[in-house]
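Design job #97: recover the sequence.
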């Protein structure tokens, strides 16, 4: 018996748990990993381009969109022409530009131009810097339903291409990415190849991102962190009264989305904590009944990978989110998928947030196969496969969440659940909130 126990322990330690058939979703047998896309010399500059490239768009306040792109021609103007018919531009906007150096690497000219005001749920055609090609985008709707595509830890592998292809078929309005974008990891040319890989998708729908650990790229005494990320992926932090591109919020239709930074200060004396407290206090749940939060390092994680890395942030910030009745918290970092019940302080709680870990976009480091047993009471579904999530918010009270593994056709839901918003629940009663957390100020 002792020998059998020892052999079982060794099996659990070294064999991917998905092969062992434990738990919902964990009995799935996935194909072998695909290869990483070819890499070049770490400090090689991007290939020169005659026109705008690495085009991506993001929301920039109500009825406005930020168009971002690079050019190798330093004299190229930072202008965007746009209109509702192809080749017929009735408006243009001028913006800002910058470039940066990173050791032996020199970036192209990075342009950021805000256009608008724009009509909701409308297709616009646009051109960057007065040059071809023409792109088109669709603005999000102003009313429900609204659909988000969600995936983290994207990277640049064959699995990434599969994930993007699936996302391209799901007819989303906004893409949310909770950190770890290019996996450049100091090799700056990989930011350029990543921008080219995303352009067909990120040039047509807004991509809203937050930073992960692979965006740090800091070199002690030489380079501060997040230089490349901040230069290339400017988010609407100024529009949301934040003083950092690493945390911000925005609204779309009836949804208030908060993007937090797992790798910048978050304790009660920090700027991020103060900003978050103020931002939550401003949320009008009559106008925006759904409240979502994204960050990189998960707080509820039953995978052995990255255990406990979100604990300190959770201790500081979770009471704020609980008091504000945040509906869903979405994280990446762990290269697998997991969905929880509503939970708070480690326990099931009908007023807590649903937590989703979705760091399964296609990174080069592979999947995180090993899960902890027994499975925590709050964990509903977990599986180590590449895939993406879709959040279809149907109306003020109901939303449908689904997770789609890359091995299946995009319409196949490997995990799905209907979710009720907490906006109309007793969870937001002011007397209850103030009694529990006298330091939390939440708008009535």
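Job complete. Output follows.
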């Amino acid at each position: 018996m002792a020998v059998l126990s020892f052999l079982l322990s060794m099996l659990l330690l070294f064999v991917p748990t998905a092969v062992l058939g434990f738990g919902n979703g964990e009995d799935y047998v996935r194909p072998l990993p695909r290869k990483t896309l070819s890499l070049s010399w770490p400090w090689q500059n991007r290939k020169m381009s005659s026109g705008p490239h690495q085009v991506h768009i993001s929301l920039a306040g109500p009825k406005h969109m930020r168009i971002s792109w690079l050019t190798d021609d330093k004299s190229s103007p930072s202008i965007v022409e746009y209109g509702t018919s192809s080749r017929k531009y009735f408006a243009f906007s001028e913006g800002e530009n910058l470039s940066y150096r990173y050791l032996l690497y020199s970036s192209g000219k990075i342009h950021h131009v805000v256009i608008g005001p724009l009509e909701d749920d409308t297709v616009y055609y646009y051109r960057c810097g007065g040059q071809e090609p023409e792109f088109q985008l669709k603005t999000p709707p102003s009313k429900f339903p609204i659909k988000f595509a969600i995936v983290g830890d994207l990277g640049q592998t064959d699995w990434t291409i599969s994930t993007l292809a699936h996302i391209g078929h799901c007819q989303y309005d906004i893409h949310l990415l909770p950190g770890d974008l290019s996996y450049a990891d100091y090799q700056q040319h990989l930011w350029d190849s990543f921008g080219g890989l995303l352009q067909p998708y990120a040039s047509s729908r807004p991509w809203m991102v937050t930073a992960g650990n692979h965006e740090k790229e800091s070199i002690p005494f030489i380079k501060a962190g997040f230089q490349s990320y901040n230069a290339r992926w400017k988010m609407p932090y100024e529009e949301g009264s934040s003083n950092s591109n690493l945390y911000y919020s925005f609204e779309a239709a009836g949804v208030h989305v908060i993007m937090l930074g797992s790798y910048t200060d978050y304790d009660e004396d920090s700027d991020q904590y103060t900003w978050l407290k103020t931002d939550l206090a401003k949320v009008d749940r009559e106008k925006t009944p759904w409240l979502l939060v994204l960050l990189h390092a998960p707080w509820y994680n039953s995978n052995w990978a990255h255990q406990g890395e979100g604990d300190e942030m959770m201790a500081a910030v979770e009471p704020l989110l609980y008091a504000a009745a945040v509906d869903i918290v979405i994280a990446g970092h762990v290269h697998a998928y997991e969905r929880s019940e509503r939970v708070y302080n480690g326990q099931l709680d009908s007023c807590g947030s649903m937590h989703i870990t979705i760091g399964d976009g296609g990174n080069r480091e592979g999947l995180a196969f090993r899960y902890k047993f027994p499975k925590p009471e709050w964990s509903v579904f977990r599986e180590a496969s590449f895939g993406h999530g879709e959040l279809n918010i149907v109306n003020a009270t109901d939303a449908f969440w689904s997770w789609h593994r890359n091995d299946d056709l995009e319409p196949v839901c490997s995990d799905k659940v209907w979710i009720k918003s907490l906006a109309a629940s007793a969870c937001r009663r002011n007397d209850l909130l103030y009694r529990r957390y006298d330091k939390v100020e939440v708008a009535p």
